[in-house]
Design brief:
The chain is mostly beta strands. 9% of the residues lie in helices and 37% in strands. The protein contains 2 helices and 17 strands. The chain has helices at 6-21, 57-62; strands at 27-33, 38-43, 48-54, 68-69, 81-83, 94-98, 106-107, 110-113, 119-129, 133-142, 148-149, 169-172, 177-180, 200-201, 205-214, 222-226, 234-238. Strands 1, 2, 3, 4, 5, 6 and 7 form a 7-stranded antiparallel β-sheet that branches. The radius of gyration is 21 Å and the shape is globular.
């Protein structure tokens, strides 16, 4: 029988303690409004969006889309100054002022990290639409230094377009049914299409997209959304009417 060395267990325990002491940043920058010097961000745990202004123009210019940062979100209220380690701001000093409540700028359905480091995927909408279909909208936020490259699949030659939803699907737990992306008469996905040169998310950019599926029966009010490359499924997401 092989025994684990004691130091291995000790190091494992130390790593777990270190991870607990250094949790992932609370929030991700979604967009920037240079005219108003305003940032819109999303709280990653709750998927609530909020907006804030940045007092120092130099600090504002140092902030990029998809930057992750920490802020005392639980105690923040509209019009209240707060500290955040965003851009060149000093985390101990109040750099910013909340211009909406947390959630006052919108509510997404979930945020999960992508397999590629520093990329967040935001599930924006899951809604029943015309013709007994369901439309899913989601967004990639690339906070890394490398592009997030999607694979161009299903077509070769001039004039081809592609979606990023090729292997995406929905799972209806109530009926134990898997729904794949709808396809048209040419077998192309009914999803937003891109030229091969645009099948990537550049560093510090946002990329929004959509896809359609056959709708689960009216008795099914929730489904699980599985997006390729995302670290875990978006579980039990309510279907909006």
């Amino acid at each position: 029988m092989t025994r684990l060395p004691l130091y291995g267990v000790t190091l494992y325990g130390f790593a777990a303690l270190l991870a607990a002491a250094n949790p992932e940043p609370c929030c991700t920058v979604v967009s920037l409004d240079a005219k108003r010097q305003t940032v819109t961000a999303i709280q990653r745990d709750s998927a609530k969006l909020f907006a804030f202004t940045v007092k120092n123009p130099k600090v504002f210019k140092s902030i990029q889309v998809a930057d992750r940062f920490d802020a005392p979100v639980a105690s923040m209220q509209k019009d209240q100054p707060f500290a955040a380690d965003v851009g060149l701001a000093e985390s101990a000093a109040a750099c910013c002022t909340l211009t909406t409540d947390v959630g006052g700028a919108g509510q997404a359905l979930g945020v999960h990290p992508h397999d590629q480091t520093q990329v967040d995927v935001v599930l924006m909408e899951l809604k029943r639409t015309a013709g007994t279909t369901v439309t899913v909208r989601w967004q990639y936020l690339n906070g890394g230094d490398e592009p997030l490259q999607f694979e161009a699949k299903g077509c070769t030659g001039m004039g081809c377009t592609y979606s990023v939803a090729e292997d995406m699907h929905l799972l209806d737990g109530a009926t134990r049914t898997k729904y794949e992306v709808l396809r048209d008469e040419t077998n192309k996905e009914v999803a937003q299409q891109y030229e091969s040169s645009k099948m990537a998310v550049a560093p510090h950019q946002a990329f929004s997209t959509w896809a359609k599926f056959n709708a689960p029966p009216a008795s099914s009010s929730k489904v699980t959304v599985v997006i390729p490359g995302v670290s875990e499924p978006f579980e039990d997401i309510p279907i909006a009417p």
